[in-house]
């Protein structure tokens, strides 16, 4: 009799340039694990059409509605998924919670607790490298960060906190 595979859905919560994608890369090194990156998918599908935060919300919503059944199917087949999508608002996390509930699998919400000044320094480096799909200004960082909502216990997630202080 074969042992039942218990996949995990890994979720990432943290401000822009907090290290979500770096952590996602590490988590995706585990056997039988798939990494899905929101920025890469949005860039490939919508690219230059995404100019504003409103555009991001619209296109991200389309992507989530389209990809959700595929994520659930992967989890149901025993494949772990690292979802490098922002889990920075209650609404985003509610969508993600629906995924692991439908798939009836384990999950971890990785919360990157990184001071803004470190994120902004990393953001400058990231923008200068030109290797990221999207360039974010410090003004955009501040505007996006105003929408950040830290997860609370009543949301029902298994939290793993990653603190970076310097």
TrEMBL record:
GO terms for molecular function: ATP binding. Signal peptide: none annotated. The keyword Magnesium does not apply. The keyword Repeat does not apply. It holds the Pfam family AAA_33. Keywords: ATP-binding, Nucleotide-binding. This is ATP-binding protein. It comes from Roseibium sediminicola. The lineage of its organism: Bacteria, Pseudomonadati, Pseudomonadota, Alphaproteobacteria, Hyphomicrobiales.
